[in-house]
Amino acid sequence: MTVLVNLVVMLGMLVVVPVGLTLIDDSVPVRARLWWLLGAVPGAVSLWLPRGVPATVLAALYALATVALALRAPLRVARTRSFAPAEVAVLTALVTPSVAGVALVAERHGYELFGFGLGILALTVPHFHFAGFAAALVAGLVCRAAAGRASRLAAWSVPAGTLLVLAGYFVDDWVELAGTAVLTVGMWLVGYVTWRDPRVRGTDRTTRRLLTVSAAVLVATMLLALSWAVGEATGLPHPSLTWMAATHGLGNALGFALCSLLAWRRLARTAL
């Protein structure tokens, strides 16, 4: 599982976040995107080193890049003075990689931050790249492109679900289940609007295919997330973390996040 998780995390660090940042307007200028890569490359290298000081130092460079990105959020608020649904979604996208960055430093150092096991910390890193950054950003793009009740609810639900899942780490499995349910509703709404609204789908065949794949994948991957959260909260049989990484994690990374962001790059480049 370690190799698979590391590859997924590298995809998030080196591809998904940089591509996503190009879809955000000048509140994240080109220079900031270059600085991101200067942190992401050491972070990617740290994944393949044994736990210890060298891995921790490289992970810390990545964490600094995620914190710098998070600091763009208050700057954006000061500039836009808006908390519209699409804005809330993009603010969430800017902030959530910092959770992954902190978790990565702790895991690479071998420190059980807040009492969480190293395995949970390792899985927190990809979760907040994809269920955090990518999901929130795509929800915001969909909301901006196709104004309507479903898209607005998606743009609210994805950040709210992500926040509840994070809170569930510290409270209990039932709060995490509630967060997973809210996040699932938001992601399914993203998929529904993507599937049905011509303003989102565009006219290019390749773009339509990418968006169709991303919408279809969400049906299966979020059902898996729900089944795991229900099992954790109730004690009922549910998929193992290894199975979740190989199905839910890989599906969301390749089928949803990568396909969605590549499609949005091919669209009219509607900037958030």
Question: What is this structure's SSE topology?
Answer:
Layout: H1 2-21, H2 30-46, H3 53-70, H4 72-80, H5 85-95, H6 97-109, H7 118-145, H8 149-170, H9 173-196, H10 198-201, H11 205-234, H12 241-266
Helix pairs in contact: 1-2, 1-7, 1-12, 2-3, 3-6, 4-5, 5-7, 5-8, 6-7, 7-8, 7-9, 7-12, 8-9, 9-11, 11-12
Describe what you observe in this structure.
This protein has twelve helices and no strands. The chain is an all-alpha fold and 272 residues long. The chain has one domain (2-266): Cytochrome c oxidase-like, subunit I domain (Cytochrome C Oxidase, Chain A). Helix 7 (118-145) packs parallel to helix 9 and helix 11 (205-234) runs antiparallel to helix 12. The longest helix is centred in the last third of the chain and has 30 residues, at 205-234.
Short characterization:
This protein has helices at residues 2-21, 30-46, 53-70, 72-80, 85-95, 97-109, 118-145, 149-170, 173-196, 198-201, 205-234, 241-266. The protein is mostly helical and 272 residues long. It is globular, with a radius of gyration of 17 Å.
The 3D shape can be described as: globular
Distance between the termini: 35 Å
Write down the oligomeric state: single chain
**CATH architecture annotation name:** Up-down Bundle
**Fourth-tier CATH superfamily name:** Cytochrome c oxidase-like, subunit I domain
Largest sheet properties: none
Unreliable residue stretches: none
Number of domains: 1
The radius of gyration is 17 Å
CATH C-level class: Mainly Alpha
The residue fraction in helices comes out at: over 70%
Beta percentage is under 5%
- For the secondary structure, the number of strands is 0
Helix and strand content put the structural class at mainly alpha
Q: Say what the CATH topology is.
A: Cytochrome C Oxidase, Chain A
Which series of helices and strands comes N to C? Answer: HHHHHHHHHHHH
Total helical elements:
12
- Mean pLDDT, to the nearest integer, reads 90
Keywords: Membrane, Transmembrane, Transmembrane helix
Pfam family, one: YndJ
Organism: Streptomyces taklimakanensis
InterPro entries: YndJ-like
